[in-house]
Amino acid sequence: MDMVLLTQAVCPSCGAANRVASGRDPALAKCGKCRHSLSLTEPVDVDDDGLARHLRLTRGPVLLDVWAPWCGPCRMMGPQFTSAAQRLAGEARLLRMNADTAVSPNNLRVAGIPALILFEQEKEIGRHAGLIQAGDLVSWVKDRCPSRSAQT
Ligand SMILES: [Zn+2]
């Protein structure tokens, strides 16, 4: 299945926007400015400023997992989200936000956690409430990002 590709991603270390070269191994992608790994194969922890920067500068889908350390289903979601990040490497940017230390979940009207919110070009295009397995999450993301696969 063709998928919307991630064509620009934010460096988790210095915050620089980096073009993502298609056809290259996402696991090896490094920041052109600071040489830190772009971490395209794993979730990136963000605070409010980090989320805003990723949403503004990412070209391609961004999937946010809102969680909290005291939430049992959130902790079960953790490894599923990590697995999904590997499977969506180079196709979507996966971010994690601790709801206890950020105001963005309130601004996004998150009512329960874990909450999974999918964005493209800063706009919310999907939301899933509650625990979801990695395979189902990958399918859910791909189902909501048909825009460019339809053109290929
Ligand atoms: Zn960097």
Task: Please explain how this structure is put together.
β1 (8-10) and β2 (17-19) form a beta hairpin. By secondary structure, this protein is of the alpha/beta class. α2 (72-87) packs across α4. It is 27% helix and 22% strand. The chain contains four helices and seven strands; from the N terminus they run βββαβαβαββα. The protein is globular. It has a single domain (8-151), classed as Glutaredoxin (3-Layer(aba) Sandwich), CATH 3.40.30.10. A five-stranded mixed β-sheet has the order 3-5-4-6-7, sandwiched between helices. Strands 1-2 form a two-stranded antiparallel sheet. The structure holds zinc ion (ZN).
Name the shape in a single word. globular
Unreliable stretches: none
How would you name the CATH homologous superfamily?
Answer: Glutaredoxin
In helices, the fraction of residues equals 25-40%
How large, in whole angstroms, is the Cα Rg?
14 Å
CATH topology title: Glutaredoxin
Largest sheet: 5 strands, mixed
- The count of helical stretches stands at 4
* The CATH C-level class name: Alpha Beta
Report how far apart the termini are: 10 Å
Give the ligands present: zinc ion
Topology:
Blueprint: E1 8-10, E2 17-19, E3 44-45, H1 48-57, E4 61-67, H2 72-87, E5 93-98, H3 104-107, E6 115-120, E7 123-129, H4 134-144
Parallel strand pairs: 3-5, 4-5
Antiparallel strand pairs: 1-2, 4-6, 6-7
Bound molecules: zinc ion.
